[in-house]
Design brief:
This protein is mostly helical and about 90 residues long. Helices cover about 75% and strands about 0% of the residues. Helix 1 crosses helix 4 and helix 4 crosses helix 5.
Length: about 90
């Protein structure tokens, strides 16, 4: 008889992926063996961690950019200056 599977909160896993966390970092926090994590991930999402991580990391980057932009437009002068330097040279 096999051991019961360790519960994984997949919503937290996705948020950590948006933040850029690696599979090793996420699996270590659960804690679960990295190979078991990869197997369970593929069963849950139907694609590999690497492919899905790339997609979610882009979402996280977009969220940060949008938040910075909205702060700049709302009158945050340091953020406006930072974005002006980054985007307009």
């Amino acid at each position: 008889m096999s051991r019961p599977k360790k519960p994984i909160n997949w919503e937290i896993v996705k948020k950590k992926m948006e933040a850029g966390c690696s599979a090793k970092e996420i699996a270590g926090a659960i804690p679960i063996d990295i190979n078991n994590f990869y197997d369970r991930f593929k069963l849950e999402f139907g694609k590999t961690f690497a492919i899905f991580a790339d997609e979610l990391h882009s979402v996280g980057d977009g969220n940060i950019k949008f938040t910075q932009y909205m702060k700049a437009l709302s009158g945050n002068i340091p953020m406006l200056t930072l974005l002006g330097r980054e985007r307009l040279n």
